[in-house]
Amino acid sequence: LYVEIGxxxxxxxxxxxxxxxKSNFLGIEVQKTALLIAMEKAKSKDVGNIxxxxxxxxxxxxxxxxxxxxxxxxxxxxxNFSDPWPKKRHHKRRLTHPNFLAKYNKLLVEEGEIxxxxxxxxxxxxxxVSFSQYGMKLKGVWLDLHASDFEDNVLxxxxxxxxxxxxxxxxxxx
Length: 174
Description:
By secondary structure, this protein is an alpha/beta fold. It is 37% helix and 22% strand.
């Protein structure tokens, strides 16, 4: 099971589900219009291994679903272009804050991974520190994903938009 937190219109998750039909994928999205589009895309492509959840990701959501996910069931979590919450007083809302990492840790399998992409350098730097201080091993770090030799990148809608404007895309696997 792979989970994308903030799946938006679902292009990224649908593509992963098509490429890996042996795994299941769950997209979590709070914006109902975007979620409906993601669901319609999955239906039109007849993707049978993708599911969606209409929720705002929070500490309470993760606690509520810990039982459903039966601790250590998720193989990977995708965090793509999350809200950077730039104000210092909002840092606990960042999806790479240690409070969230502790929740993810309970849900991930032993060798489970978090894949994080952003165009926001400040959030990327914060996340690298957060992952490291939490004790996570950084499997790979890309300071300019599109200028690297990284293969099989699945683009998100935001990634296409930002990279077409010349913005650098950062990526880390932890």
